[in-house]
Amino acid sequence: MAEPSEKARAKLLSLNEALESGAISRVRRIINSGLAPVDVAHLIESSPPRDRKLLWDLVDKEIEGEVLQYLSDDIQSQFLSDMSAAEVADMTADLDADDVADMLQQLPERVIQEVLDSMDHQDRSRLEAILGYPEDSAGGLMNTDTITIRPDITLDVVLRYLRRHQSLPDMTDNLLVVNRQSEFIGVLPIRKLLVSDPQQTVREVMSTGGVTVIQATQHETEVAKLFERHDLVSAPVVDANGILLGRITIDDVVDVIRETADHSLMSMAGLDEDEDTFAPALKTARRRAVWLGINLITAFIASAVIGMFDKTIQQVVALAVLMPIVASMGGIAGSQVLTLVIRGQALGHLSSANFTWLFNRELIVAALNGVLWAIVIAIITWLWFGDEMIAVIIAAAIIINLMAAAVTGAALPQILKSQGIDPALAGGVILTTVTDVVGFMSFLGLATLFYL
Amino acid sequence: MAEPSEKARAKLLSLNEALESGAISRVRRIINSGLAPVDVAHLIESSPPRDRKLLWDLVDKEIEGEVLQYLSDDIQSQFLSDMSAAEVADMTADLDADDVADMLQQLPERVIQEVLDSMDHQDRSRLEAILGYPEDSAGGLMNTDTITIRPDITLDVVLRYLRRHQSLPDMTDNLLVVNRQSEFIGVLPIRKLLVSDPQQTVREVMSTGGVTVIQATQHETEVAKLFERHDLVSAPVVDANGILLGRITIDDVVDVIRETADHSLMSMAGLDEDEDTFAPALKTARRRAVWLGINLITAFIASAVIGMFDKTIQQVVALAVLMPIVASMGGIAGSQVLTLVIRGQALGHLSSANFTWLFNRELIVAALNGVLWAIVIAIITWLWFGDEMIAVIIAAAIIINLMAAAVTGAALPQILKSQGIDPALAGGVILTTVTDVVGFMSFLGLATLFYL
What we know:
Helix content of chain A: 55-70%
Oligomer: homodimer
Number of helices of chain A: 22
């Protein structure tokens, strides 16, 4: 996902003006005026669909590949689908293999094969190594541009070997040490290489213990946790036999961290974290309709509960006026607990042992806030309707619903997670159903029992 | 914020058991059994308050400072408040200056001065440089452990100079080049140093153009964007006169990225991103009460609207049964738009130019989904109550409320942001107020006009 700079923001404005007025040559000048590829990608992402294709066609051929890699999946696949396999192979020739792999995964299987066939042997075999792993695994995240050395040479030889390179790969903080079988055996940190006696051998200086080694099959969120915990810049990736496959660098991990964090926020509103801010209306409407439909079921369940008490409401209309308060306070209190537990899960703070403590804490909090707000609401209700019986009933219902909200908000994410369901996605809907049903049922039910 | 590992998760379980059974010596063995400081911090954070102090007292003196730096602000300040200034100075002696500065900021001004006075001269002046800047600025994030070189020496001299060090600071990907006035003039990437001819001078090899230089006063979220955009591992920090002050490294930026992302999620539920999952019940109840109070005002406004139509409801109870559906569908649709726009703002995708397009897109989406679900709801209503007039009225109200939700969800974050109010915090409450008021008003109002 591309990020803005101040300069890009100014360009965005003048670009939109130029597009409005149809001044194509001005548009071309803006997007090719030394703007970094990430900024061009940002301009494209910030433009409505009808302008995107136009902008893309105006991008200089040399930076096309780089621009594409910063675009979101949705837009990538749209642009790629218009290109021939040879064009794709040509465009991606200078990019990192992991970024090319990510892009290719937007294409149908058949086209991927065509693109691979149009590449030279080395590029192809690198890509195939990455494409063999799921996109969200360490293997899909890794790059194959590693500098490997043998343990039995001296640092002096290493330094001379490095000097034969035009440049080193980005984010090379470690040289990777492998044996004759390409098995990973340790790292030679550049930091150590620079301060050590050149006559020492790699084996004498290299680190073996405490080195974070990543399995190609590990999930990308696990990889992100390892990077965060150990403050890594890069880490080697090995297969099940310990053979070095490549390395993962922090820039790609930062993207994973951002996407994972985005996921919870977007899921709670029933949105996908890959959602394109400027997706066309029809596509957006279709995606959102599903979520509205699910929530409609919740709403009808709540209505059905109210319907059970229609005779009570007919006699005491104040109940209809006040009942949304009970449901809404429960929903708000519950969503606070739910959000806290979902974040606690993401941070790995929750275990079966400390969950009991948290659950009890939430019950106490619900009781405290239940009593506090029950009193406030009862007083307002009494002043409003001058009816102390309704005041007592709504107070009781508030306490009941806040307790139900606490139980649901705390327990639901754990239950959903154990069933393999994403709590951020399903939690809110289920919680609202519970707080609506309990809210209406307790308030109208108590009124029917004690008031009529 | 500490992150879990598989090992830590297993320890968490056995630790909780040991704590339950009161086996202090076993607890001590667990937390000092070669567990990394970040894991010890994780164990403490994952424990209820009553166990935390106990665990903290059992931590080995040598790793106390490191453990403390991984704990959340809340817990840091709790532990620090029990220590003397000399103890704090002693404990933090081996830590990075930026991490110490973060910790000290949890203490009262007077105590900070005492701690500074107990430090040796070098540590103190480093810390004072950082403490002079706000915690959330580049100056507060930077570290002062930079390796600086002069431009007129040869790479060979640089290499020999480096070899005089025991080790280089973590994440040293660039050496920083300064002139006699300590003004920053460029970077010598280690990558270049290693592949260049040792007889060249620093000036010949160093990079000056395209180097990201950070102003000490820049906000940390701007710093994070620069790191993400340019795939940086570290960047130099300068003051207004271009004097080099220190550097920022990606590990600290990753924390900023995670906290910023957390902020939106937690704010939308009225929670603070620093919220401690295991805060005591009283503290938690007090913090949450505020949010419930604010939402209660919303709920009473909605009730007041319903109250305006009490006579209508008395005659047609079906209205009371159905009215939550109108309000709830509006709330759900609105929060989808709200979340999308808030994320768009965070990613910098929204400008005044493309906002009009987005706004119109949302109106079209609301119209499409409004019509779709209005029809579905009308049919169900008709089947349920056998009353085509109510069916038509609820259909109209749904369309009106979904349009209102789209307008509010799209415009509100932009308006709030321009007023300096956090949309993630205030947006949801205001949106719900609008969709409740418009929902009840349109449904009950139309019924009063056309039905009675």
